[in-house]
Amino acid sequence: MAQQDTDQQHAGVLPLDEEGYVIDTEGCAEREAAWVERGTSRPITVVGNPVLHKECRDVTDFGPDLQQLVADMFASQRTAEGVGLAANQIGVDLKVFVYDCPDDDGARHVGVVCNPKPVELPAEKRRLDDTNEGCLSVPTAYAPLARPDYAEVTGQDELGNPVKVRGTGYFARCLQHETDHLYGYLYIDRLSKRERKDALRQMAENEPRYPVVAND
User: Fold this and answer.
1) Annotation marks residue 178 as catalytic
2) pLDDT at 63 over 50
3) Active-site residue, from 32, 133, 152, 178
4) What are the positions of the active site (predicted)?
């Protein structure tokens, strides 16, 4: 089978399908739990913190420090009950995000992407979905934001192996949202001035349900 051939050519953390995309829907609970067990939950940085508003540095060292960072990110994501988390959301200036996110068919996806780059999609794959979007770094605020309902990113896994990840629906939104973070953009930066102001008002009027780093 093609899957067997693909596996022999790929020494990455997750297996690949016959098109070369990671299979991130198998063993999700066990993989996420193993990361969380090794990690320490950290507070979430919020809009206004400088680390969120600039492009992060590329990951070049895939050693123990990165493994601990990823574990801490999974632990932080669970505490905050999020579906995706970028490193700068816990104050670390590195291009890595983790995810534990369902797609619109209910399939759970769990994985890690370092140095992600969005794949430019042909026009026929750019159907827009204007569902509400939220962000752990803009706690309690939500706003509709049109994004393609299919997304692909390329990058590396936590050991430095090349990976391709694709998603539909809610998971596609997650991939785009987290990649944006690592290039210095929050979802509210893609809103109109009025919508952005409203999102910040929502944030100011409510208390986050998880620990955050207060901006001075």
Assistant:
1) yes
2) yes
3) 178
4) 178
